[in-house]
């Protein structure tokens, strides 16, 4: 295949631009800072694949044609052992027939078939939407699997381009949108000069990059958009009328890459080869928007550090003693489970450690331990930034031990509002009797076979579990 043209946006842009250039990819639509940092030529052209930082800054979404997505995803995952990736069953640009199962305050939930769902905002729908309606919709914004969200869809169709200079939208006048949103923009006149035959009932939407593009690039982008209309209309003609929930057209793929702590530090190294980068640059930026701004300021004025300044980050932004944190327990399948919230009863920023206490509700038993969960029980969890495991001790109201459960995971990150990691299935338990056992090794192997956990990461997790078990027995 030819080198994909890649557009990169978000907090990982400089690092991933370096990764893409090293792989021989063409980076397009580069921002001003990227142009200044790299000794490279950046075309203003439509991209084959768009790489966007997720809203929570935990990773990136990669959308585009199948070959380009796979090539870019491989490079993103390759930055570190704890970079994990999943393919989205509801990708950007895909068209579905959906059934409205319920409405909320601002939109509707749609069943897309095969366990897939989407969210349709009322302002993105053509007319009223009620439960029981069957609608044809297109994916506007996919949703990362580790967040409790659904892809956002609309009833108006567009040519499914990502990183495009030009797209076409069903209905409207010749030019439906310009970068500044005004009908006086010079691109309105330019559209006529390009002499491209736009299909009837389709209108042009120009992206921001169009303002800096040459006439040749504008014409190429518009001609490509017209070609996408033909393919889309052929697919819908074959599908016929709106029917039961189903996928009708998937011209693009979307993959998600979650960066763990180790991967973020590896991305720091890529960035440092291009511009001044403080240790823990991406780790700090992933914490909060305020921390992200602080990193930019520190690097701009030349503040340096020998290693990741967790003490300064924690003291300024958290976590601190007295805070309430949630435990965001990622799964190798891409899902995220919240294990509840706890109070920080002790915190040592200099050591990067904290203790979290949670009061447990009655009912059931503690996983693998088999001991009964009763009202008044307390779970005491001790964590350390960057450690590949953490231990939780359960005790009854009178202080009697109900056992210890040690989760083996990707390196733990202690953010101001949450503790984040991906659980690697295999765990170590110490029963109240003192017996120690490694559990769930089979589940880890199943994740390896399913392609969710790389073999070397699984081997590392097994090694950690074996060392922990030996330590608990000694």
Q: In order across it, which strands form the biggest sheet?
A: 16-17-18-19-20-21-23
Briefly note the structural class of the backbone.
alpha+beta
What share of the residues lie within helices?
A: 25-40%
Give the domain tally.
Answer: 3
CATH superfamily of the largest domain: FomD-like
Mean pLDDT over the full residue set:
94
Low-confidence stretches: none
**CA-based gyration radius:** 25 Å
In short:
It contains eleven helices and 24 strands.
How do the strands and helices of this protein lay out in sequence?
Layout: E1 5-9, H1 13-22, E2 26-27, H2 32-37, E3 49-53, E4 59-64, H3 66-77, E5 83-87, E6 95-103, E7 107-113, E8 116-121, E9 134-141, E10 151-154, E11 166-170, E12 175-177, H4 186-193, E13 202-206, H5 215-239, E14 246-249, E15 253-259, H6 261-272, H7 281-285, H8 289-301, H9 310-317, E16 324-330, E17 336-348, E18 353-359, E19 378-384, E20 389-395, E21 401-409, E22 413-414, E23 418-430, E24 436-439, H10 441-449, H11 455-473
Parallel strand pairs: 1-2, 1-3, 8-10, 12-13, 16-23
Antiparallel strand pairs: 3-4, 4-15, 5-15, 6-7, 6-9, 6-14, 7-8, 9-10, 11-13, 16-17, 17-18, 18-19, 19-20, 20-21, 21-23, 22-23, 23-24
């Amino acid at each position: 295949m030819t080198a994909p043209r890649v557009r990169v946006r978000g907090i990982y842009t400089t690092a991933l631009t370096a990764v893409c250039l090293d792989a021989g990819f063409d980076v397009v639509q580069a921002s001003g800072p990227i142009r200044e940092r790299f000794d490279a030529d950046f075309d203003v052209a439509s991209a084959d694949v768009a790489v966007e930082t997720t809203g929570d800054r935990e990773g990136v979404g990669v959308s585009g044609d199948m070959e380009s997505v796979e090539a870019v995803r491989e490079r993103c995952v390759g930055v570190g052992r704890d970079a994990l990736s999943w393919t989205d069953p509801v990708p950007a640009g895909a068209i579905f027939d959906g059934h409205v199962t319920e409405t909320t305050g601002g939109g509707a939930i749609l069943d897309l078939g095969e366990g897939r769902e989407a969210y349709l905002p009322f302002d993105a729908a053509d007319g009223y939407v009620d439960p029981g309606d069957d609608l044809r919709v297109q994916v506007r914004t996919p949703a990362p699997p580790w967040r409790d969200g659904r892809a956002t869809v609309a009833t108006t169709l567009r040519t499914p381009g990502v990183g495009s200079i030009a797209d076409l939208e069903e209905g409207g006048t010749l030019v439906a949108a310009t970068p500044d949103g005004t009908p006086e923009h010079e691109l309105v006149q330019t559209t006529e000069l390009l002499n491209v035959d736009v299909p009837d009932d389709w209108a042009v939407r120009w992206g921001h990059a169009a303002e800096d593009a040459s006439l040749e690039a504008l014409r190429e982008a518009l001609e490509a958009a017209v070609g996408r209309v033909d393919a889309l209309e052929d697919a819908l003609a074959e599908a016929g009328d709106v029917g039961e929930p189903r996928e009708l057209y998937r011209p693009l793929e979307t993959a998600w890459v979650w960066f763990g702590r180790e991967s973020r530090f590896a991305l720091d190294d890529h960035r440092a080869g291009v511009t001044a980068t403080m240790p823990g640059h991406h780790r700090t930026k992933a914490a909060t928007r305020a921390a992200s701004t602080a990193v930019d300021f520190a690097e701009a004025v030349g503040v340096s550090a020998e290693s990741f300044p967790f003490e300064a980050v924690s003291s300024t932004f958290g976590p601190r003693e007295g805070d309430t944190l949630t435990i965001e327990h990622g799964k190798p399948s891409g899902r995220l489970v919240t294990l509840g919230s706890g109070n920080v009863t002790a915190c040592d920023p200099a050591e990067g450690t904290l203790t979290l206490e949670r009061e447990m509700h009655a009912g059931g038993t503690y996983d693998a331990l088999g001991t009964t969960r009763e009202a008044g029980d307390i779970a005491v969890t001790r964590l350390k930034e960057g450690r590949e495991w953490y231990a939780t001790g359960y005790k009854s109201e009178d202080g009697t031990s109900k056992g210890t459960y040690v989760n083996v995971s990707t390196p733990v990150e202690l953010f101001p509002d949450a503790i984040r990691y991906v659980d690697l299935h295999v765990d170590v338990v110490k029963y109240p009797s003192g017996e120690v056992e490694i559990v769930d090794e089979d589940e880890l192997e199943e994740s390896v076979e399913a392609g969710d956990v790389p073999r070397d990461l699984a081997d590392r997790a097994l090694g950690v579990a074996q060392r922990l078990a030996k330590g608990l027995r000694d």
